[in-house]
Amino acid sequence: MTRRDFLFKSGVLLLPSIMITPTPDSLLAVTPDGRIRLSPVLDYDLLLDSIAMVETGGDDSIIGSAGERSKYQLTQAVFWKAFPQEPFRKCQGELARLAAEHHLHYLDINIPRISITETHFRHYALAWAWNGGLRSWRNKEQPYHIPHERRIRLNNYAVRVTNLYDEVVQKRVKEHAELHSSSSSSPSPSR
């Protein structure tokens, strides 16, 4: 079953931008004056990898204190939204990845967009909602709904995920720039 088939059968509304599977170069764009900048495409695979590193260091066998499973620390309710017929003990590996993608798409659809081109704030918002839930993201601007200590914890989590994501993207930008600067600076054959 392909990712698209899975998401279609699970009843998730897909936006065209969500169906893009970015390659390293698709995160980069060259401006008319030749500068390299980040593209507005959000790399969902990279975001899930960043979440997994913050949650468990990428270890799929860890079970959280509230019973969360897999390297994404999925709850039973989240897993069953994607796979209602599967036992929760199977939440690891590819099933966990598909359930995590399903949940990330659910969050993405339900968090309002600021602009069509926003990316940095988007992965911060998705990381916050991943850890604290959609309701905590919606109540973020109302401090009396979320205790101060929890707001700090959620912010720190989202910042760590964002930093990991940005670190990989910046590495890609640097590699891309080096690749193009070395190809443009190579001497042309003499005639």
What do these coordinates show?
The protein has 191 residues and is mostly helical. The protein has a domain of 127 residues. Helix content is 52%, strand content 3%. It is built from 7 helices and 2 strands; from the N terminus they run H-E-E-H-H-H-H-H-H. A hairpin with a 5-residue loop joins strand 1 and strand 2. The longest helix is centred in the C-terminal third of the chain and has 37 residues. It is globular and about 55 Å long. The N terminus is likely disordered.
Concise summary:
It contains seven helices and two strands. It is mainly alpha-helical.
List keywords for this structure.
about 190 residues; 7 helices; 2 strands
What structural class is derived from the secondary structure elements?
mainly alpha
User: What integer is the average pLDDT?
Assistant: 78
What is the CA-CA span between the terminal residues?
55 Å
The radius of gyration computed from the alpha-carbon positions, rounded to a whole number of angstroms, is 19 Å
Provide the helix percentage: 40-55%
Oligomer: single chain
Extended strand count: 2
Biggest β-sheet: strands ordered side by side in the sheet: 1-2
Task: Tell me the number of helical segments per DSSP (H or I, 4 or more residues long).
Answer: 7
State the major sheet.
2 strands, antiparallel
**Parts with pLDDT < 50 across at least 5 consecutive residues:** 1-26
Task: Assess the beta-strand content as a share of residues.
Answer: under 5%
Overall morphology: globular
> What is the succession of H and E elements?
HEEHHHHHH
